[in-house]
Amino acid sequence: MKSLKLGLLVLGLLVMGLGTSNAAKVGEPAPDFTATGSNGKTYKLSDLKGKWVVLEWHNQDCPFVKSQYKGKMQKLQAKWTKKGVKWFAVISSASGKEGAVDAEGANADMKATGSHVTATFMDLDGTIGHAYDAKTTPHMFVINPKGILVYDGAIDNAPLKDEAVAKNDDGEPFVNYVDMALKEGMAGKTISTPTTAPYGCHVKYAE
Amino acid sequence: MKHFTLILVFLFLPLSAFAQENHLKVELLSETATLAPGKPATFGLHFTMDNGWHIYWQNPGDAGLAPSVSWKLPIGFRAGKILWPLPQRISLPSVMDFGYENEVTLLVPIEVPRTVHAGETFDLTANVQWLVCKETCIPGQATLHATLTIGDGKGAANTLIAQARAQLPEKQPKTWRSSGTLDDKQFVLSFLSGTTPVSVTFFPLQPGQVDNNAAQIFRPNAKGFSLTLKRSDLLTQNVQKLEGLLVVTDHDVKKGYEVKVPLSSN
Question: Is a pLDDT exceeding 90 seen at residue B253?
């Protein structure tokens, strides 16, 4: 009897474990983490309650990221950080893989591109990346002041378009989903597109 | 001498039907030597990738981007959408791509106007864009040219185009019945097909509905088969139908069917 109970307990824990394997889910609290910035500072997500937070998965050598950094991404970062949004680039490339840089390299990249991020997180072991199930660069997440994940997906609907476009390749009007989520969220409206499929390069996690 | 070679290269480039780029070669092919007035023609974009590199299907899966083409055609000619041969699942650490390795020919139907005459020639230009990936991804583009001659449109079909045509999906057979359920964890699709295939793989047409990387559970039964697919975390609202490509393997024969499965939500 005791062993059965123990068995059930183990099974229960296993099921719970499976249930929480995809931790980040829109509408639920964003997984908390502590991160080290390339600026040497430490950040804890739960300390940022009361602020809007954007997480941007980053790899400076990925063509999709490079295309965004021809101007579109910096403009968006500048627009929203001026309004008090905390915007973090996250590097989850494992050592030796594309986009893996040390803090100095990350700082040099931020300077070279004129990035307006609050800080760049060094997540080279992929802990934060796996907690959010970040799949691509740039994969974007928006967290509201209550700490709830409100957007998970692509940056926009026009991959590899260096310049602002009126329509994407499918003839649909151009939408930047992060801009739209922040605009709607700050105005107290429901976020009309809370999830999209992210596009870009794979995040180069350790195998 | 060096300058002379360079000039020659520039002279020939604008007229080429193929381009050799990073890890990939792409060639523009015509199905027949001549095109007949008023008859639809088919062109092919034949991609050859270096070992280990791949390009993408129309839904690229967890990452990547489908190739695209824009045409510059003579007046009266019209290009249709790309027809995609059956893709494969390309597994990478923690993600799943849908695409093509080694080589593939994407087909594009082109309408030829009735008003053209035998013996006339026309120039056609295809601006092709792609993303080719292995561990890293490299975007590429090429401008390919072909000269069309109007004639009877007959003669031997290009082999690569014929092969690609044989790999295009068909409509779901009329005798099949399909239905499905969707709950917060999974899709369960049931097909009354009258046959029990050896294996079945589903490729979702829209991103963000099915968890691409999860195993697909195939269960044959007396009247057909069912397929269980993990729901994507990105699918926050239930959908009424699931559209995609069903690749059915029956012994050595592999066939693709375009399916649209109506769903009831539990």
Answer: no
Q: Can you tell me the mean pLDDT for A112-132?
A: 96
Give the model confidence (pLDDT) of B41-86 as tens digits.
999 999 999 999 999 999 999 989 999 999 999 999 999 999 999 9
- Residue A195 is given by DSSP the state B
The owner of tokens 């899966």 is B61
Q: How far apart are the first and last CA of chain A?
A: 41
> Are B64 and A26 within 8 A, CB to CB?
no
Tokens coding A3: 């062993």
Contacts 24+ apart (CB under 8 A), A70-73: A70/A162, A70/A163, A71/A162, A71/A163, A72/A156, A72/A162, A72/A163, A72/A164, A72/A176, A73/A115, A73/A138, A73/A155
With tokens 């792409």, the residue in question is: B26
Residue of A68, A135, A140 to mutate, testing the B interface (most B Cβ within 10 Å of its Cβ): A135
Q: Which residues make Cβ contacts (< 8 Å) with residue A106, sequence separation at least 6?
A: A38, A89, A91, A120, A122
Which pLDDT score, from 0 to 100, does residue A13 have? Answer: 37
Give B173 to chain A, closest Cα distance, Å: 29
CA A44 – CA B104 distance, rounded (Å): 48
pTM attached to this predicted model: 0.84
- Three-state secondary-structure class, residue B226: strand
Tell me if B183 sits within 8 A of B196, measured CB to CB: no
Rounded-to-integer distance, Cα B160 and Cα B158, Å: 6
DSSP 8-state secondary structure symbol assigned to residue B35: B
Rounded mean pLDDT of A88-114? Answer: 95
